[in-house]
Design goal:
Blueprint lengths: L2 E4 L9 H15 L4 H8 L4 H12 L5 H16 L10 H10 L4 E4 L4 H10 L8 E3 L12 H9 L7 E5 L2 H9 L3 E4 L8 H4 L4 E2 L3 H8 L3
Parallel strand pairs: 1-2, 1-4, 2-3, 4-5, 5-6
């Protein structure tokens, strides 16, 4: 028996690119330099950790909360109510796992309420047995806490869990948790460090589904 734990942004939804585009849009309006680097460093981590990234790059007086609120408002205006595009193959993969009685969880750095709303709006909530959000953990990825919590919620041993991730910090966290990291790259292609940490890499979730047919 195995279990599957999904990251959300960049894995279930094509949301990381949307968020990055909104930050770029705001950076153009506000004359904020090097926003691509700030966004890149923020992939796969909690909001608290993202705030720290922005403070480190732009100084303690950087109005992160104010600007994040603008980005969030624009994001929800454009993508709420089921308008957030899903990644190719996610529904087919979830249906395959569900049909075989494989328990699944979401372990996302995003707040739990937002995770539940977005997944519900996409019509995918019934496919997941547990949802763990970034507000339920003390430490952000690459710390393994969120994945260990997800395994505990599923009553699973870490060694029996496959983790589907797109971010470097997610792969690091899954590896540190003693799980089986599967990478589906989104905005970042794996470097040499990450290639040593994941077990498999796939171009999309379509190929992930085929992989699970073999185990």
């Amino acid at each position: 028996m195995y279990y599957v734990i999904f990251d959300m942004d960049g894995v279930i939804f094509d949301s990381e690119r949307k968020i990055a585009d909104l930050w770029k849009e705001l950076a153009t309006e506000q004359n904020i330099p090097n926003i691509d680097e700030a966004v890149r460093r923020s992939i796969g981590i909690t909001d608290a950790a993202t705030k720290q990234v922005f403070k480190e790059m732009y100084g303690e007086d950087f109005p992160y909360e104010e600007l994040k609120k603008i980005v969030s408002t624009r994001f929800h205006a454009r993508y709420d109510n089921g308008n957030l595009p899903t990644k190719p193959g996610i529904r087919e993969l979830l249906e395959y796992l569900h049909e075989r009685g494989i328990k699944t969880a979401v372990a996302s750095s995003t707040r739990t309420a937002v995770v539940e709303t977005e997944i519900r709006d996409a019509g995918l909530l019934n496919f997941f047995d547990r949802i763990i959000g970034g507000d339920q953990v003390t430490h952000s990825k690459p710390d393994p806490e969120i994945f260990l919590n997800a395994a505990a919620a599923l009553q699973a041993e870490p060694k029996d869990c496959y983790v589907i991730e797109d971010s470097f910090n997610g792969i690091r966290a899954a590896h540190a948790a003693g799980m089986h990291p599967l990478m589906v790259p989104d905005m970042l292609q794996p470097n040499e460090e990450i290639k040593e940490l994941y077990e498999e890499v796939f171009p999309s979730l379509i190929e992930v589904r085929e992989f699970f047919k073999t185990i």
